[in-house]
Write a structure and sequence with these properties.
Blueprint: H1 4-12, H2 25-35, H3 38-41, H4 44-48, H5 54-61, H6 66-90, H7 95-103, H8 112-156, H9 159-169, H10 176-194, H11 196-211
Helix pairs in contact: 2-5, 6-8
Length: about 210
């Protein structure tokens, strides 16, 4: 079995291994319960909040042997109660879980220490997810901005001018010919675009044009 530490380190370096995905959320939840690992159990509230088939998971756990079967089902029901309480505390929709608890008459007391253990982990996972989503959004915005900028630049500057501007942007040295071309043909355009009066004039033209479109 490949070391988890090794896999994590390789992924941090950009290398990834292809592993098969679970075909359903019921597969994933059942597999976590079968592992009987407390650290993995912490992931269950994240999975259970999305909707799942309770009977299907139970039927898979029923196939376990001896005490492991009863222990896994008991743990599953306990985490269901914990997840229900977490979602209630967070003001999230937990009707699906409440219906399962009511229908299957799931009962049990949850020690406050255990609840807080799961709840604090849940909130930390949600924060990480939010930060990841924010990073993806920022990357998408930067990409859209770059595409929009490139489109605008290509409407004003020729390919040759853009190539020289890109070298300057990347702090790459210009040849004497490129430098002369920059001051003769590129810089005047840049100064014109930067002129505030010209920008106002173009804005007025665009505004008048839009108001005359029938």
């Amino acid at each position: 079995m490949i070391s988890a530490k090794l896999i994590k380190d390789l992924e941090a370096r950009g290398f990834s291994l292809d592993f098969p995905n679970y075909s359903s959320i019921e597969d994933e939840i059942s597999e976590i319960l079968k592992e009987n690992n407390q650290r993995l159990f912490l992931a269950l509230p994240l999975l259970l909040q999305s909707g799942f088939n309770y009977e299907e998971i139970i039927s898979r756990l029923e196939k376990l042997k001896g005490a492991k079967k009863a222990e896994s089902i008991k743990k599953f029901n306990s985490i269901l109660l914990i997840t229900n309480k977490i979602l209630t505390s967070e003001g999230k929709d937990n009707r699906h879980i409440q219906e399962i608890i009511k229908k299957n008459r799931i009962r049990g007391s949850i020690p406050e220490t255990e609840f807080q253990y799961f709840y604090s982990s849940y909130k930390e996972f949600i924060k990480k997810t939010s930060r990841t989503e924010e990073k993806i959004l920022e990357q998408n915005i930067r990409l859209r901005t770059k595409l929009s900028t490139n489109k605008s630049l290509s409407a004003i500057f020729s390919e040759g001018k853009l190539r020289i501007m890109d070298k300057i942007f990347k702090h790459e040295p210009l040849t004497n010919t490129e430098l002369k071309y920059y001051y003769r043909s590129i810089r005047p355009l840049i100064l014109s675009i930067s002129n505030e009066d010209l920008q106002k004039y173009v804005y007025i033209i665009e505004t008048i044009k839009k108001s005359h479109i029938s």
